[in-house]
Every structure is written in structure tokens, then in C-alpha cells.
């Protein structure tokens, strides 16, 4: 019984030691990163203050200062600093002569002194480090101090609550995939903040007057002033900007100027319609474009290739609004096959909007698939796969197409974002009550909360798609995965 408990304690102690070693290693790496260093210090402020005090106390006993004083005395006795000054001044004169720079004597002395001090300190630290290593010692770091504290179970147990955020960021930083996702999400937040600021600034500087447009020409100055006071339009620019950004972050954009409807609820009702239309169009485009692009690459300069690439070029050239009107004229009015306007209760009404919205994406993906596949099917590794006796299907799917997917995925991500932003035209043509047409209806007032919500939440969706595209790179290409592990 005692032996079992002893073995359990040893196993737990070994795991705790490995955890402490991993956390301290990551801690040391983050301290070397300028941006993460401040994040780490702020998130774990109580723990870092303890580590800092213990580190400062421990540095007095690590022998570094004693060794440094001894090395510095040796360098002074050998007139190293004077010799180094001569070398630095000569190199600095050559540099100025080579670049034909005219420098005054005081400026020359200042530059030489800075360069001398930097070089001297670097050499002093290197010699001190070598002397410590010769005596089997090394300089104590904050990471070493942190590890020594973590090796004590009581410290780790007491540090979990005040240092939970710091431990979370350490675990994220230690996993390359989580770190990659975290940094992309953080970058996305800055992008969204920039988009919100830009959109609000444009609307704020707009010559349109929301109060006058909504209340009408007969509105008095008192009514306009009351309207502006109710919706906060009489407040300074920075106050209005902060209120809108806070509303976006808290998913509370207040009431719209026109209709007095809850903006967040309205966007939540209309955005799924636009997203569904875009997703169906995307799937339809991929189902059609990928096979056409691959076959065109396999049979270049054939009748099939010329025909479908010509059709793809036409698809890229046709404006959505014109294509939609032609579809309504032929398939709804003349043939009466499909309904002219969108009706959520009738699945046939989604066919024409989906085709119209997906035409440009289909053409772009088909052309990119062809060009990207053509680039890789003549590479050496594809020829080697054929020489090994693999079937043509395996060669194409496992070696050629998979390596050609990176630019295709990029185009799909960019085009999908464009579809979300450009769906307003298609929605207007087919009378779809989606987010695109909602923004168009509100922009001439301008209804600032409604436009801000629609544009920013669309930007959030596009940013999320870009993060997914970046992750797909790692899933598709092992070279990207290896780089991420070294990240």
C-alpha cells in the first residue's frame, strides 16, 4: 500500500516537474518577444512581481557581478577600451567617407562614443558569460527563477487563481496552432476596430442630415434638435464614436433612426438570409468550377478548354444586376418556370439569385483552378509519381490538385467575402430582404446605427473566413504546418 502511494507521488511529482519545465521554457521565450512580454507581465502582475523580486535577490548571489567586475578589471588593465576606441573611430571615418557624409566633430564624437559603449558592453557580457561557464555557472534569468518557484507545489497551487490568465496565455503561446489562431483573432479585432472607425467617420462627415431626412422638410429647428438629442447626434465626435464601438462590442446598437427598430435584432434576422444565399452560391460554384478547371488543365488547348474558359470569361464580365434582370425576363415572365421574387416558403425562388450571385465566383475559381493545376502537373514530383506506376487519378488528386489548392483556397476566401459585400445588388433585383439591401436602404438617410451594424458584422464574418482560410493552408500544405510549428 505504501509502495503504491509512493509510486503515485513520484508520478505526480514527475508530471509537475515536466509542467514546470514547459511553462518556464515558454515563459522565457515570451520574455524575449517585445509584444508578448508586456502582455505576460500585465496578465500575471501579482506573480510577476514576486518572480521579479526573487530574481533580483537571486542575481546578487549568482556570481555574475563578481565575474563582471573581474573581467572589466582585466579589460581596463589591458587598455582594451582605448584600443577599441581607435578601431571604432577608424571604422566610423571609413563609413562616412564611403557614403560621402559630412559630419561635424561633436557629432562624430557622439556617434563614436555610442558605438564604443555598445561594442564594449557586448564584449564585456560575452567574456563574463564565458568565465561563468568555465566555473560551471551561468547567469540567473527570470525564467530560471519562475521555474524554481513552480517546482514548489504550494506556490503553483496558490498561483493558479491570480495567475490563471497568464497560464492561459502561456499554454496558447506554447501551442503553435493556438498561437496562430490567437494572433489572427487579435489582428481581426484591430481590423474590426479600424473598419468601425472608418465607417463612422465617413457617415459623420456625410452631408446628409438624418433628422431632416426622416422628419421631412417641414420639421422645425426645435424638432431637429430634439431628434439629435434623443439619438445622441448632438454629442462630440469622439463620444459618438465610442458609443458606437461599445455598442458593436456589446451587440447593442440601440434603435435605428428610421422605424425605431432594434438594430441588433434586425441584423440578426436579415444577416442569415444573406449568408445562406452566399453559402449556397459558394457550394454551387465549387461543384461546377473545380471539375471544369481540372479537366481544362488536363486537356489544355482543347475544344473543351477553349469553350469553358470562354464561358468563364463571359461569367466574369456580366454584371449581376443585368444577369438578374435577364433571368427574370426569360424564366419568370416568358417561361414562368421560376418566381421573380424571393419567397422563403418557396425553395424555387432561391435558384435564380444563387446562380446570379455565384456566376462570378464560378468563373474566377474555374480559371484559377486551371492555371494553378497547369503549374503543378509538370513539376518533378508529379512526374516521379507517374514513374512509380501510380494511376492517373491518384497522381492528379493526391499530388497535383492538392498542391494546387493553396491559390484556389485564397481566391475562394476573397471571392466569398466579396459575395457577402456585393450581395446587395442581387438582393435588390430579386427583392430579397437581406443585409445587403438593408444597408442600401439605410445609407441615404444615413441611419448610422443600422449601417454601422451591417457593415461591421459583415466585416467580422469576412475576417473569420480569412482565419479559416489561413488554417486551411496548414491543413492542405505540410510545408505550412512545419512552418507553423517553428512559429
Relevant terms:
22 helices; MetI-like fold; single chain; mainly alpha; 487 residues
3D architecture notes:
- There is one protein chain.
- The chain has 487 residues and is mainly α.
- It has helices spanning 2-32, 34-43, 45-59, 64-77, 80-98, 105-134, 142-150, 153-159, 164-174, 176-204, 210-215, 221-230, 237-249, 263-298, 303-317, 320-334, 351-376, 380-387, 392-429, 435-443, 448-476, 478-485.
- The protein is extended, with a radius of gyration of 33 Å.
- It starts with a helix and ends with a helix.
What percentage of residues falls in helices of 4 or more residues? over 70%
Query: What is the CATH T-level topology of the domain at 263-444?
Result: MetI-like fold
String of helices and strands = HHHHHHHHHHHHHHHHHHHHHH
Low-confidence stretches: 5-10
Rounded to the nearest angstrom, the radius of gyration is: 33 Å
Q: What is the straight-line distance between the termini?
A: 47 Å
Overall CATH class of the domain at 263-444: Mainly Alpha
CATH superfamily of the domain at 263-444: MetI-like
Strand content: under 5%
Structural class: mainly alpha
Please work out how many helical segments DSSP would assign.
22
Instruction: Give the rounded overall mean pLDDT.
Output: 78
**What's the shape?**
extended
Largest sheet: none
Second rung of CATH, namely the architecture of the domain at 263-444: Orthogonal Bundle
Strand tally: 0
